[in-house]
Fold this protein.
Amino acid sequence: MNIKQLLQIGLILAGSIAMPSWAVMINDGGAYDGIDVGLIDSFISEAAKAGNPTDEQDWANSILGAGSVTYTVKTEPVSYYGTDNSGVFAFGLASSPEYFLVKNATRMALFQNLADTNWGVFDSSQLSDRMNIPSDKFTISHVTEFNGQTEVPEPGVLGLLGIGLIGIALRRRRSVA
């Protein structure tokens, strides 16, 4: 295999790794219309509401493992926006948390934050009917954020890493021959 073929294979692999993922876009006709908010965050669990952020943190740690999360910030009131995916809603986050908890009058739901950590994005079909989502009566009483920012490598970075590794392999192969 010659250098040209290796570079072509490397570019194909880099392009396939760096393909854009399916993004969720706000689609509410307002000021944020068309903004890419990342991916739908991972639903972890739902329960009856807890009384305060310390109780919420204790509940999250009971699900994720003792000491897994620490309270970062509580945001209220929370404005949320419809997206281009039916039943999927997005709202801004204050601290780019690793996990967040959405709370309404009677329930709370824990999510792991993925992709764009500045936005919380959830699929209401994953929640029980007791969360009253979606409905005209639904409100988010507050969002509790846990931990700091999650470092998520971008697909382009992975592609560049692959090209770099191919280059190192080629250079090594030349020096051995």
In short: The chain has three helices and eight strands.
